[in-house]
Amino acid sequence: MSNPLILKLGRRDTLSAEEMRVLEGAPARTIAYRADEDMVREGDRPIESKLLLKGFAARYKILGRGKRQITHIHVPGDFVDLHSFTLKLMDHDIVALSDAVVAAVPHETLRRITDEHPHLTRLLWLNTVIDGAIHRQTIVVIGRQDARGRLAHLVCELFVRLEIVGETEGYRFELPLTQPEIGDVLGLSTVHVNRTLQELRSDGLLTWERTTVDILNWERLRRVAEFNPDYLNLVHEPR
Q1: On the CB side of 221, how many CA atoms lie within 13 Å of its CA?
Q2: pTM of the model
Q3: Where in the chain is the domain with CATH 2.60.120.10?
Q4: Which residues, in sequence order, are CB contacts of 229 under 8 Å at separation 6+?
Q5: What is the pLDDT of residues 70-91, one digit of tens each?
Q6: Which CATH class is domain 138-232?
Q7: pLDDT in tens, 135-193
Q8: 4-118: what CATH class?
């Protein structure tokens, strides 16, 4: 199986054989999580960062009366908490949205990488910078787009991010999110999510059967979403 982090970073810059060897050897162990199991909790002080190898995860905050806001969806190839290396104290929770497998990289190993591999350090920094760009785009989408645009944008973004790490087949991909979870991402009620999904289906833009999304008309869906992937920084260039 290809290392999804190598695929993700290799989309943006060229990794040397030595850098790939370092990344392959960085994890100390792998951990399996079941769907809905927390990987990290608010208030934790992790001593390792978790690289998602399989499945989906999400960062979230719990608000008053138990309401949840998902602030980021993670796909294979994402470090779900690379920022804990420097942040130390976690200010949010991270949950597995599906059965998932992560590779745990000790912070001591990350410290050694930053000391000995400056180019690889810049690429890992780029990883967190792209996370920030996704957060900014999410704020814009939720703050200024209607429900139809929000859902279309989520599908477009996840398709592109999954395509980078080889998790798509044509315009089809697996997305095991429930409608309540989608509502927690987009700030919508479950009823509103269901109605919006039916609209996108009726317009011939996509199908979403159980956990399988099939984009039927990419260009029209992209226009509905006002989706421009520049914020995902897909240009391959020296960093």
Answers
A1: 26
A2: 0.96
A3: 4-118
A4: 156, 157, 160
A5: 999 999 999 999 999 999 999 9
A6: mainly alpha
A7: 999 999 999 999 999 999 999 999 999 999 999 999 999 999 999 999 999 999 999 99
A8: mainly beta
